[in-house]
Task: structure prediction
Amino acid sequence: MRILVVEDEIKIAQYTAQVLSSLGYIPELASSGVRARELFSLHDYGLVILDLMLPDDDGLSLCKDFKSQKSNTPILMLTTLAEIHDKVSGLNSGADDYMTKPFHVEELTARVRVLMRRHQGNSHYLRCADLEMDLVKRQVSRSGQVIKLTTKEFSLLEYFLRNIGRPLSRVQIAQHVWDLHFDPESNVVDVYVKQLRKKIDSVSDKKLIKTIVGIGYVFNHE
Result:
């Protein structure tokens, strides 16, 4: 799942991205309002982490615009402005949560997970046939048997489970599970699909990952 980080301080942006990557998310950085608006219009994000003080834009206006375009996308404001009236203004502009800098990793992690769960709905689970993914515990099982996955394998499976029955090209998979700069000529998608297929399809007669020649893959139990 992609998360847009709008932050003009490079060190903070990189540190935040590192934390998000460790949680299995795909962070994309924007250091200006112009870049943030461009990325937000092009892609669907599971969460936006937004600084209020940007060199070329107002974070409050940015938040309002984002919410007017995609109201279901949660926004976490992460800023140095710590006064009560700043928090009230931020929340009134449409932010779902407000957090001040400097921050503790544990608190950021907890807030991100809460907002992501809200965005994903009340259910913490994704299912297909006898395979189940627990998004909170980040655990996968099939027919009751726990399957250990790497961070990228988990992200790949989550993307499949959110698109059951929908043919997905290698480029689509690469852009959602890796990043915007992924090389479409690389065979890494096929390598990871092969690894994932071994882990989840080897324990059952029902094969969930199917290859579509000339297109990519489809995930279903039919």
Notes: The chain has a mean pLDDT of 88. The radius of gyration is 19 Å.
